[in-house]
Specification:
Blueprint: E1 7-9, E2 18-19, H1 36-41, E3 46-48, H2 51-56, E4 61-65, H3 69-81, E5 86-90, H4 95-101, H5 105-117, E6 120-123, H6 129-134, E7 144-146, E8 170-172, H7 184-198, E9 202-205, H8 210-219, E10 223-226, H9 231-239, E11 243-245, H10 255-262, E12 266-268, H11 273-278, H12 289-301, H13 303-316, H14 322-334
Parallel strand pairs: 1-3, 1-4, 4-5, 5-6, 6-7, 8-9, 8-11, 9-10, 11-12
Antiparallel strand pairs: 2-3
């Protein structure tokens, strides 16, 4: 293994600076090594919010673009002045999130400047690849790279699975009524009949207080209602279920599917990038909701089907584990020519 590592910079962000010298580290010790923290963790790198601190580490930088694109432009200009190779990525990359961040000609102009200064662009979703390439005229198409968020599937400390025969019921993967593309209410509605018919328990995380309780009462769905938990408790809760269900159509990186992977469970019904990698037969891509429900039922009642899905996901997880992701990041940054070289 080489000594390659990167710094993920979220300029002006609220997360604390963090070193991932132990890669994924022990669960619960600090910010989990997932989402954009995962890019730092898989290389034993750092997560920083101050551009000067990031440049001081003298490592390649992956800079996150937030809605405050003026701050992002200032940050990448400082990085370029330090002569460090820099890739960029939108911090929020779902379809609805992109529209929110780039909602004016001014925001679009700032984004184009940032993308033009970057040596490369990393996207954890395939949907934004043509967008980035179109906004970087004259730049090599291969400098825009689809690289899903890494997950520590190859670190036994992050295996949250429990014995197969101890898993019960359905874990609702979404939780937001107000984000239309999450389809949270529709997911609750379509899963309620199946859960009642098969006598399956359903667990729901309630972030909307009384509104969630009223919706569940209206549906006549008896649920185990959970409040927001820390990440390790959330994974432990998810791991006790046989299936993770959602109808999210946001084209997000796919954290819910990645979380299901850490639990060695099966996620059904989403269309995120990780959903398509780990659970291609159970995503919303090319399937209507009746087909998704039929496959959910099969996973709940057919042990062979369920175990085959787990085995397929285990094999697919090698594509986005820390080892593979680190190799891909290293190859990308090696292909970047430093300014002036």
């Amino acid at each position: 293994m080489t000594d390659f590592s990167i710094t993920v910079l979220n300029p002006g962000g609220t997360d604390a600076a963090q070193s991932f010298s132990d890669y994924a580290g022990e669960p619960g010790s600090a910010h989990a090594p997932v989402n954009y923290h995962g890019y730092a963790a898989c290389t034993a790198g750092n997560f920083e919010t101050d551009v000067t601190a990031a440049a001081r580490l003298q490592r390649p930088i992956l800079m996150l673009i937030r809605r405050d694109m003026k701050a992002g432009l200032r940050a990448i200009e400082k990085i370029k002045a330090s002569r460090l190779p820099v890739a960029v990525a939108l911090k929020e990359s779902g379809s609805h999130q992109f529209s929110y961040q780039v909602d004016s000609a001014k925001q679009l102009a700032l984004l184009k400047k940032i993308l033009g200064l970057a040596d490369a662009v990393i996207s954890p979703t395939e949907a934004l690849i043509p967008v980035y390439r179109s906004l970087r005229p004259g730049k090599p198409p291969e400098s825009v790279c689809f690289l899903p968020t890494p997950y520590p599937f190859d670190d036994p400390r992050w295996d949250f699975s429990i014995p197969f025969d101890q898993r019960r019921g359905i874990f609702m993967g979404t939780r937001e009524f107000k984000t239309a593309s999450r389809n949270h209410l529709a997911g609750l509605i379509v899963i309620s009949e199946l859960a009642k018919r098969l006598k399956q328990n359903v667990s729901v995380i309630n972030v909307d207080g009384r509104q969630t309780d009223l919706m569940l009462n209206e549906l006549g769905l008896e649920c185990q209602v959970k409040t927001i938990m820390d990440y390790t408790d959330y994974l432990s809760c998810m791991a006790g279920h046989r299936v993770v269900f959602q109808l999210d159509q946001s084209m997000v990186p796919g954290q819910v599917a990645g979380d299901a992977g850490l639990c060695r469970s099966v996620a059904v019904g989403g269309n995120g990038s990780i959903d398509g990698i780990l659970f291609p037969d159970f995503t919303a891509q090319g399937q209507d909701r009746l087909e998704i429900l039929a496959k959910t039922e099969q996973l709940l009642v057919d042990d062979d089907c369920y175990l085959n899905a787990l085995q397929a996901a285990e094999q697919a997880s090698m594509k986005i584990n820390f080892s593979n992701s680190r190799e891909r990041l290293e190859a990308l940054f090696q292909s970047i020519t430093r300014p002036g070289d």
